[in-house]
Each structure stands twice: as structure tokens, then as C-alpha cells.
Amino acid sequence: MSGPHPLSRPGTAEVGRSSVGRLARNTYAVVLAGGRGSRLKELTDWRCKPAVPFGGKYRIIDFTLSNCINSGVRRVGIATQYKAQSLIRHLQRGWSFLDGRIGEHIDILPAQQQVAESWYRGTADAVYQNLNVLRRDGCDHVLVLSGDHIYKMDYAKLLDEHVAHGADATVVCVEVPLVEASAFGVISVDDSGRVSAFEEKPAAPRAAPGTPGRALASMGVYVFNAPFLYEQVVRDADDPRSSHDFGKDVVPHIVARYQVFAHRFAASCVDMPRGEPYWRDVGTLDAYWEANMELAKVTPDLNLYDRDWPVWTYQEQLPPAKFVFDSDGRRGMAVDSMVSGGCIVSGATVRRSVLFSNVRVHDGALVEDCVVLPDVVVGPGVQLRRAIVDRHVRLDATMLDDPRRFRVTHKGLTLITPEMLGQHVHQLR
Fold first, then answer.
1. How many helices (H) and strands (E) does the chain have?
2. Which of 263, 256, 254 minimizes the C-alpha distance to 161?
3. Among 113, 208, 301, 381, which is least packed, fewest CB within 10 Å?
4. What b/e sequence results for 200-223 when a residue is b if at least 16 CB atoms lie within 10 Å of its CB, and e otherwise?
5. For 342, what's the count of Cα atoms within 13 Å in the CB-facing half-sphere?
6. Residues 283-323: pLDDT tens digits?
7. CB atoms within 10 A of CB 327
8. CB 367 within 8 A of CB 380
9. How confident is the model over 84-131, as pLDDT tens digits?
10. Cα(287)–Cα(51) distance, rounded to whole angstroms?
11. At what angle do helices 61-71 and 155-165 cross, to 10 degrees?
């Protein structure tokens, strides 16, 4: 069977009268936010990857949720599982502004063993176990989104293209270097944009048409016609051979049988200052550090200052950043850096770094090429270079003498957490 699914294809009249606003309003977004992100090592010992701080004041999940809000998709469910309390508190404090009286809401969907005596077994199973929520919502389309990537995308354009194609499902893809494509699901397309093949993390990925040296990689962003999605996750749940994952199981199954199209991310990416779409996985410590450090450049590829497409988040009420003392040998200053509210740089130097909220940097200290998470204290005389410092760390000049207590990446980046220093933290991360 290679034609459109009989229950899910919109008629010609629907396509003709469809509007971007109506499509977005009648769409429910499922954000998959249950993953640990194990390649971030100790940074996710106490929080899931979507809850990891990013960009001076945000959490990673804020970018996906902001895309939803800015696109007009305001019926959202967030599937949580691994160490979700920090994430849930952030959602409660920062994302409770939607108005349920007009059909806007964010549902937190923890793994509750509602359907079977198991937690979420995979991304498709997370949707399957919440089918009652989706069916009760009565949506026409379902967006399936990853909550742990950094990008700005207008989902309304994706929905419009999905309906125009008469698709059962649409997979969003981005061009990546061929040598890196083995880390992704790789898509092959025909001249009409229909997906002809989908391989999850292939050993020998195929190049994209007309672009030798580059491949089309799945971003883990999908849109489905709602009845079609329900049928497919039920079928997948009944398959004992399945790992219940969209990329490994569901998408490869439907590509050969139904109308599955590819959507190029460049067509819906918001604000491309260099003409290239911005999308970061930040799945490793080095990638996380690099993506944060890019933001301190003169013209970063990710524009956080775009008032037409704001990144929403929970903002604690904090005083402005302060830099004190201005004498030789004792000057509070920050150069080529991002410094958030509540920070005090007192007679110290900060260069090419990102300081999150409430960081204190004391006399004679140097912070250079660092990502410093909230509520960190850098004591007098500390010399800190090329490091990620986790929340609530207290550093003094003697603590950095033994590098063996810290995690050092193959690129020479150092991760410092409270536990590595024997500091016991009771607050949420």
C-alpha cells in the first residue's frame, strides 16, 4: 500500500480553505522531554537534558516551547520521565501563562503506567501511552517534537506544507556533513519531496540529491494527521519486535506504505543571519560548551535579541549585573561575554564567557572561556579556564589543584559539579 491513508488525507476543499492560523490552532504538540542525555555525563545526574540551562537564562526545552507559542500552536503536552522534578518546576513557574478558557494549555504527561505496567519504552510508546489525552483534545494534527534541541522554527509553515502535500506524515530534515550523518536518521527523497527511504544511523549514509558531501538528517520533528498517528502507534505497541521508537520503528514502517514527505528546515527556520539554518543537538559536553560560547560572539548564528520571535522562559526577579572596583590590579570587568541578572563581578576579570544568573566572581579571579551556571561562587584568586561549572558550585583557589577529581573531555574541556568537590546540594538543579 503506497497511497494516502484513507482516514487521514484532507480533501481538496480542506486544502483550499486551510489557513496557517487555523492549522496551528487545531494542532496538538507532543514534546518528548523524558531523556537523560547521558552524553552530558554528570551535568544530567540531577536533571533531564531538556532542563539543562542554556544561553545565560534559559533551559533547553524553552526553545521548542517558544517555537510552539510563536507559531500559534498552544495546545502542548510534555512527556517527562527521567529526573523530571527540576523540569516540572520550571514549567510550572515559567509556562503557566496560557489561558485554558480559550483552549490554550500545557499538559505535563509523566510516565504513569496508564496503559501497561511499564514506563515509557521509547518515543512512540510515550505517545501511545497518552492517546487518551490526544483523542480527548480532538486535534486534527499532531506535532511530535524533541525537547532537547536548540533551534528557532515556525511550525505553522511546516503544517501548511504538510496539508498542501496531502501527506499522512511529514519529517523535518536538515543538511549535515556526510561524515557526521551516521549519528542521525538519514532521509532519501524523490523529486516531489516524498521520502523514499529512511535509515536510522546508517554506517554508510547516502548523500542528498545535488549536494555531494552532505546528507539529509532527520531533526526528530514530525507532523502527523491525528487518526493516522493513533493507528500507527497502536500497531507499533502490538509489535513485540519493535523498540517503540519513531526513528527506528514507526517512520521506516510508514515510508514504504503511506504518503510521507520531507520538509526542509531552511524553509521554516526563523532568522538565518548567515543564510544557514541554526540547529544544535548540544548532546555532548563539548557541543554544549561550544553552542553557549557562540552566543558571546559579535554576531552569533542564534539571535536571542529578535523581538519578533522571543524565547520565553521563567525569569526570576533579580537586580541587574554589577561590575565593581576600577583600580590597577583590582578591576571588575567582562569582555566578549554574556552576563545575566544578579551577577556581581568584583575586582575580577571575565573574558569570552557566559555567566548565568546570580554568579559571584571575587577579587583577583579570572574566568576565561567558561560556561558558569546559576548560583556559582568563584572565590578570590581562582583561575578558571575552558570549563563548564554546574549550578551551586563554590570554588576557592585550592580546589583546582587536582584535575583528576573533574571530568575532562577529549578536547580539554573541564566539567565541575558540586559532587566532584564534595559539596552536598539540596536545591533542585
1. 10, 28
2. 263
3. 113
4. beeeebeebeeeeebbbbbbbbbb
5. 16
6. 999 999 999 999 999 999 999 999 999 999 998 999 999 99
7. 7
8. no
9. 999 999 999 999 999 999 999 999 999 887 777 788 999 999 999 999
10. 16
11. 60
